[in-house]
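Researcher: Quick sanity check before group meeting.
Model: Go ahead. Protein one:
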Amino acid sequence: MTTPPDEPHDLHPDTRAVRGGRDSCDPALAPVIWASSTFVSPSVDAAQAAATSVGTERFYSRYGNPTVADFERAVADLEGAEAARAYGSGMGAVTGVILGLCSQGDHIVATRQIYAATQLVLQVMCPRFGIDVTFVDGTEPGAMAAAVRPGKTMLVWAETPANPRLDLVDLDELGAIAGPMTVVDSTFATPFGQRPLAHGVDIVVHSATKAMAGHNDATLGVVATSAELVQWLTGFAVLHGAVASPYDAANGIRGLRTLPIRFARQSASALEVAGWLEKDGRVTEVRHPGLESHPQHDLAVRQMQATGGLVCFDLPGGIAAGRRFVDALELAQLATSLGGPETLVTHPASTTHVNLLPEELAAAGIGPGTIRLSVGLEHPDDIRADLARALDVVDGLA
């Protein structure tokens, strides 16, 4: 278990992002990678104390590691949390929370608008362990609270902005739900887009593989919450084994140091690209929280400090049009991730959400021509030109 160091809390988040994650690095400016899986104990008593403590950093790296702990402290500070726990992937964090906190006979309320792998954990894995799950429309006011079963519901799980259509959940409404623990997957927003804990939410989860690490060279998950919950989750994580690599954690620390600037640039570029796409008659249902046309734009203005680098839109012509569009791109690359420096494009129906049934895709608002665009750090004029060329190809073959 790791907690934020005694740093001055009147510093701006941008400054704390640069300064964080340095406890085990002094005097090095770059993150120090503690690559050891095993640490020598000075005595039998010290070894016993480490083996029976939670989150020890210098015993065995499945329990904890100094580089990983530095990353955890940095994330906890940015999220305004007491502590954080890192995992080997975003899905390691997701399953670590769900299976670490829920038992046979428990109930979970989850929004339908979530990442497909998370949905499969809730929909397929949880019933195997006797955990009941109710899915609700997270955009419908009161739906999450109405589905809670007093004394049975352990978690209320939401993802906002949601993958891939960027639907939003009202964080104040979620944080006000009494009884169960509330969880937000805030991967698309990062701590520089929103801070769910400040709205009363109990737990925030990230696939730090994405914008947090930000360079497509780390596979990481992280959970930020109270010290008490992190202690409980750490006990399960040591058995679960989905631990973060110190190499990935070092890349995560490096990513956090530039996250404020990267996220601001990508948010601005994505809004510019989305506004341009919205004016092109060959594209339908353009989604970005910063657009006034987004059905929850007012909510985005209220709870988000930056609206992120993701854009979602639909192409008439279904899967054939989607395939032609993606194949015609030259600058944007087809890849199943987001938040890195390169502009990436994804066809959700054939990749990220391929395991969902047709009716489940429809419920999530994902059509055969749905495209998810992760806007990178390239000049927005070049991104627009690439999209325009691909749209010309689709239009010419229609």
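Researcher: Fine. The other one?
Model: Protein two, sequence then structure:
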Amino acid sequence: MSDQHAVDIPQTEHPAPGHDTDRPGASAQETCPHRPAAAPQSSAARPRRRGPGTFTLLVLPGLLTLSAVAGVLALTGGLPDDRTPGDSPRQDAVSGVNATYGPWLRKAADACTVVTPSVLAAQIDQLTGWNNDTAGLSGGQGVAAFTDEEWRTWGKDDDGNGASSPTDPADAIMALGRRDCSLARKVTDLRTDGTINGDLVDLTLAAYAVGTDAVTKAGRVPAAAKTYLTEVKALFAKYAEFDREDPSGGAGAQADAILAPPVTTLTITSPYGSRKHPLTGVTKLHTGVDFGAPQGAQVSAARAGTVVFAALTKAYGNRVVVDHGTIEGKRLETTYSHLSRIDVTAGQTVQSGTPVGRVGSTGLSTGPHLHFEVIYDGYYTDPRPWLSSGG
């Protein structure tokens, strides 16, 4: 301590900065080494002044630098994560996710209409809480918890940094988008042919959690997937800011009357909405409108488009699906079910009024009628506002 106490600074009544005044057993001289003496000392008794010692020259500057760094870290929240893509570690104020992830979430969701940026973000939150160092129970790596086997299927070098890695958040987000969109296409096909029923986002998440085979076997979201589904959907609102468009698929928006009547007389025998199915007894969403019509009456395309499905299904019987392209950037499709016969083939171009089949009672049906659906951006919606002449 002699070197430290011999620093040539003005005398004061208070301890020098950095001295430990609470050390047990410290003497008066140690706690306040520059206190004036009680009486004048002779020149012989006065201690000789010395220059700065080793501690002052070598150690003290390092301690001051460390103290300054610690203060900066305390104010800024720590060192930036060098795995964060982009030049800035800025965090989004609402979601708490690094702002540079937003463009990757949007790009990944562009691969299909069912998956939105908020869906991808909510999945990642549920999987790892955006912790890139957390490995899942299955041995997954990175923010999206991909296993090595899964990464071989879905992983790519999407950010062009020369390496494809599940611990690169940009690569992981894009890979999750590819995987989800693949599942979305599968469940869309299954729902189109009547094998399963339900919301496409719910079915896609369920397929991610338990596989498409389990969804197909259940015909809907299986019980085993409901906990995962509930947890992910609870996070949608947190990440809604990342969505470019309304993720509801336009639900609730007033549609323009741009569809021609698919049958001559629009007599509604069962409207769109929740109902108890007359054959199965299950209460669920009636995804379209039933128009009463005689057996064999002509059924026509409601708008120009391309037939994307025309075949016999278990639940819908003979079913035709027509893709009408996009309306305000969102895909519009119409379906015609329980037909007694089909008059078009997949891939065929149709115009408004082109015959697509005949009214029947095939599939799960109690009598001749047309089950007509409107699917807008992957979501069922009430057909009546879309029709130029309502029933």
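Researcher: One line on it for the slide.
Model: Confidence is low (pLDDT under 50) at residues 1-51, 72-94, 245-254.
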